[in-house]
Amino acid sequence: MVNYPIAATVFMVEILCPHCEGEIELDDDASGEFACPLCDGEFEWNVEGDESFDDAVTDTDNRIETMDFDEMPAVPKVAGIAFSIYMGILIIGGIYGIIAGLYLSSVESAIGTGTGFGAIFIIISLITIALGTVGMGFGIKTAKGEFIPLIVIACISGLLFLFSIFGYEDAADLPSILIALAFTVGNLCCIFVPILKAQFTGVLVTRSDPNKPKKMVNEFDKTKSIHPLEWAGHGVSLVMLIIVILCLTSSSWYTISAGGDDILTMGLSEVELEQFWGSESATYSDIVEDEEDYYDARCVEGSSAECDQIKQTVDYWKSWKTSTLILKVMLIITLVVSIIGLISRLAAILANTGLMNLPDKGYMVNDMIRKFSPIVVCLLLLIGVVIFMIIQPGLGPDEFWSGGEDVDGSFGAMVWIALVFSMMVPILSKFEIDYS
User: Fold this and answer.
1) What are phi and psi for residue 214, nearest 5 degrees?
2) Is the pTM value of this prediction over 0.85?
3) 394 is in which domain, residue-wise?
4) Distance from the first to the final alpha carbon of the chain
């Protein structure tokens, strides 16, 4: 009689290390004290009389839910209080807007203009105050660690970011865009990063699919000596950010001169007109509106040579408004990408010097952003400037300018600086990618 050995089936269970939160596989019937193979931290498992860790871990549908994680009570407090302060500033701005609207309405009534700009200003200010009040309320709830209010303030900050972009006029609007972007990114991180989300929900949720690579592993050392070309890339990225900001703040993208003297200087939002007594500036929107009003007043009954000339003027300034608006939007997108790239470079420096520990997958994603963000920035900048150069109307029709002096138009220095940098930086980025 032959005795065949009976194969024993061993069931494994995946748990999270209470120290490093790494995934560990243990026998289902294992018990006692164990050392984590990832961080060498000691913990107990299946010990009679202490089932707190066992009860804190639930494995369902390839997800591990645990209430045993590093608590960071400062996260909800900082997120909520900072957003509440932001909303408080918004409310103060709305109050000043109401005061300005009331003053404007009184001036309109005294002069008898028949316009209602003051009332519109008041309505917008009231909406701003209402939004700020709601945001402050949800910010306070977020500071108390509630998750749903966190989602609400993320939506509010995202809306404010979009409004800031569409309402951009000049460099004075950049701080509001960057602040709204910072709150949007921070709130989204609190929603989607598991350890940050756990500070609000009280439960840390991670994936435990054995067929997929682990997401939060640290299998290789990120500390290394930084190649000189990497340092050069860091410096160039900072310079590119400065150039993008200069592009957004520059007021001389195109210049029209007569008799050797500049008479018009085109910026992104305003036109500067040189007169004998000094210079005056006006926005493209104001110029288009004034010209359209003039056309409506003079050309009600039909067409004439004068009306055709006025219509050409309206179309000319509309073309300038469109071309500068497209350039402005492209520059804002470029600014956002440039900031993201610079943040990724800072994270890479901290990881390479051992000051910050990034998981393997996060490090690789960050490294890709670090390497290719300058190329994306240059591509966006190049596209924006080239589109502007193509669609800007220049001097307009030949008969647009009257007078005996020769009228010339030329692109400003900012155009050529942007073009040169957007074509040279990718070459350095190629060397950085090859040798870093």
Assistant:
1) -70, 140
2) no
3) 228-435
4) 68
Could you tell me if 248 and 388 lie in one domain? yes
For residues 338 and 125, give the distance between their C-alpha atoms in angstroms, rounded to a whole number. 33
- pLDDT category at 436 given cuts 50, 70, 90 is low
Average pLDDT of 147-172? 82
Q: In this structure, what CATH number is given to the domain that contains residue 280? A: 1.20.140.150
- 82 and 26 in a single domain? The answer is no
Q: What are phi and psi of 261, to 5 degrees?
A: -110, 140
Question: pLDDT, tens digit, for every residue of 250-300?
Answer: 888 888 887 777 778 888 888 888 765 667 888 888 888 888 888 877 776
- Report residue 66 as tokens: 């645990």
Do 422 and 315 share a structural domain? yes
pLDDT digits (tens, 9 = 90+) for 311-341: 888 888 888 888 888 898 889 889 888 988 8
Q: Are residues 374 and 390 in the same domain?
A: yes
